[in-house]
Amino acid sequence: MKIKITLLLFVSIAINAFGQCKYNDYYEVTNIPSNTISFNLTETSSSSCCKIEKISSYSEFIFSKAKQYISSRGGAHFYNQLKPQGLYIEYLDLNEVDDTNPAFFELSKYNVSYQIDYVYTNGKFTYQFYIKLDKSGEPISDDAFPDMSKNFKFEKLADICTAIQLVKAHPQFKKQKVDIGRLYYNEETGNFCWIITNAPPRLSPGMHDVTINWFYVNANSNKLEKIEKHIDTFVIPEEEQPSPKMKPKKKKK
Q1: pLDDT above 50 (res 12)
Q2: Which tens digit of pLDDT belongs to each residue from 161-212?
Q3: How many other C-beta atoms can be found within 10 angstroms of the C-beta atom of residue 29?
Q4: Of the chain's two ends, which shows fewer C-beta atoms within 10 Å, N or C?
Q5: Residues 171, 172, 173, 176: is their CA dihedral positive or negative?
Q6: Residue 82: is its pLDDT beyond 90?
Q7: What SS3 state is found at 198?
Q8: Would you say the C-alpha torsion 44, 46, 48, 51 has a positive or negative sign?
């Protein structure tokens, strides 16, 4: 199921002369497949078609199973800071479903899987992840959220401004401008990382493949873990030429 599977939170960052950070967060949204029905879990959600009350008997069960699994892995404190954003039901044996047909809400008749999107808030930072479960409520997705057994201090995040200053001082950053930061959960090490990248050079209109350095900074210890090179594609639109101003005609005397 290819829906909202982004594990990284994109954070635009600007640094003023005093070294303070300002950021705006946003989420990547993708199209919902034709064999999937989405349910609105927030008042502001616009991508969902349906109200959760239509499947309350099923949703209560699946949310309880998700809570049980997340709490056992990340702890009750972590779970209590989560806000569910959306529920997506994929009908695995069908190519298309009609969300206006009540028959499709009788979920016991279909082979389905569930995906719940969550947002975790830690101070001024947020992180979006999802958990996918089968019909019986067993998790079937990769773990994109913390495991207390690996790192019980995962919620103690260092300030991103400190991570940015660390990266800016690195020789490979070459005094470039910071473009964006990403809060990312590293399953191998059991901690969050800041991914800091350099801004691309000034580009002419057209499509460009640019090598960008990704600096991974441990969000708990504020130590640089690794640097990766990624090729990102940038599309720069042609600048619109301003239309000439028309001089008003003089009135004839």
Answers
A1: no
A2: 888 889 989 988 877 888 777 788 888 888 899 989 888 888 888 888 988 8
A3: 11
A4: C
A5: positive
A6: yes
A7: strand
A8: positive
pTM, rounded to two decimals: 0.71
Cβ–Cβ under 8 Å, residues 190 and 146? yes
Give ∠ CA 230-187-185 in degrees, rounded to 5.
65
- Residue 87 sits at φ, ψ, to 5 deg, of -120, 130
Q: What is the full DSSP assignment across 65-118?
A: HHHHHHHHHH-HHHHHTEEEEEEEEEETT-S---TT-GGGG-GGGS-EEEEEEE
Residue 190: how many other CB atoms lie within 10 Å: 17
Q: Which residues contact 79 (CB under 8 A, 6 or more apart)?
A: 67, 70, 71
In the numeric block, which tokens belong to residue 88?
Answer: 């997506």
- Asked whether 160 and 221 are in contact (CB, 8 A), the reply is no
Place of tokens 């910071």: 178
- Do 147 and 189 form a contact (C-beta atoms < 8 A)? no
> Residues 6 or more apart from 238 whose CB is under 8 A from it?
205
70-74, 137-141, 169-173: which has the minimum mean pLDDT?
169-173
How far separated are the first and last CA of the chain, in Å rounded?
74
CB neighbour burial string for 93-125, b if at least 16 within 10 angstroms, e if fewer = eeeebebeeeebbebeebebbbbbbbbbebeeb
